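FIELD: query
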Amino acid sequence: MSESHDPEPQQTPERSRFGEWAYRIFGPAQVDGAIQGHSPEARESWKRRVAARRQEREDSARKRHERG
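FIELD: result
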């Protein structure tokens, strides 16, 4: 006859000292805004930086073209 085996209760793994420290400092993982990865203010700042870099590249290219 077959014996029924009750699975042993799962035990949580021991945390290392570093893991405990990191958890206390940084807390649990957060996924809020994970798709965008940032706040609306940060996105606007990023857009301004990208536009400034694009303008700098265009200005450099224009100067090279004028010289050459």
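FIELD: remark
The first helix runs from residue 17 to 26.
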